[in-house]
Specification:
The complex is a heterodimer of chains A (about 120) and B (about 110). With about 120 residues, chain A is mainly beta. Chain A is built from no helices and 11 strands. Chain B has strands at about 5, 10-15, 20-25, 30-40, 45-50, 55-60, 60-65, 70-75, 85-95, 100-105, 105-110.
Chain lengths: ~120, ~110
């Protein structure tokens, strides 16, 4: 398996534009997570899905952010309209099992570096 | 408040030397503690996962220890290599929240030849 695949790797956009980040999880994984990483705040969980259903989106910063998972092999994170403070690296991760046990390893994609100017 | 604090923030050592990174946490109770390695420009990769009942776990030259009484963990790297240059992040999973991992800020390790 190629691992978690994210696209694009880099995105530069102007303030006010819509941005869509894409993720293909590892086949067979039931859980998908979207994270944001900045120097100031480190890694923050934005939202996670179980079997394509959003379970908790309390980490989504505001209504400008939305995430969908139309099927088991694809998810998107959309920002509309984008703002300079959204500049960060956005990671998608998937996991075969969610729980408190040792099998809950999350596999991360390489991330999308978003710059909003 | 659940927190994970790591020290030092950054560390520079010579290739071949050993080093130890520290992690203190206030998450209680917790189900497991993980160490991740994050290379520049890449996503984090899991190194070790320990449950609250374990006190050591090894992965090659990486050895993690856990003291649940003092709420401390350490990651020891033996015979460092240039490829060990990365950020190392300590992550704790609270017992009452299966998905909400508490991430430390990481230690940036630089290995010099």
């Amino acid at each position: 398996d190629a691992g978690v695949i994210q696209s694009p790797r880099h995105e530069v956009t102007e303030m006010g534009q819509e941005v869509t980040l894409r993720c293909k999880p590892i086949s067979g994984h039931d859980y998908l997570f979207w994270y944001r990483q900045t120097m100031m705040r480190g890694l923050e969980l934005l939202i996670y899905f179980n079997n394509n259903v959003p379970i908790d989106d309390s980490g989504m910063p505001e209504d400008r952010f939305s995430a969908k998972m139309p099927n088991a092999s694809f998810s998107t994170l959309k920002i509309q309209p984008s703002e300079p403070r959204d500049s960060a690296v956005y990671f998608c991760a998937s996991s075969p099992f969610q729980g408190a046990g040792v099998n809950t390893e999350a596999f991360f994609g390489q991330g999308t570096r978003l710059t909003v100017v | 408040k659940n927190q994970v604090e790591q020290s030092p923030q950054s560390l520079i050592i010579l290739e071949g030397k050993n080093c130890t990174l520290q992690c203190n946490y206030t998450v209680s109770p917790f189900s497991n503690l993980r160490w991740y390695k994050q290379d520049t420009g890449r996503g984090p990769v899991s190194l070790t996962i320990m449950t609250f009942s374990e006190n050591t776990k090894s992965n090659g030259r990486y050895t993690a220890t856990l003291d649940a009484d003092t709420k401390q963990s350490s990651l020891h790297i033996t015979a460092s290599q240039l490829s060990d240059s990365a950020s190392y992040i300590c992550v704790v999973s609270p017992m009452d929240s299966n998905y909400q991992l508490i991430w430390g800020a990481g230690t940036k390790l630089i290995i010099k030849p």
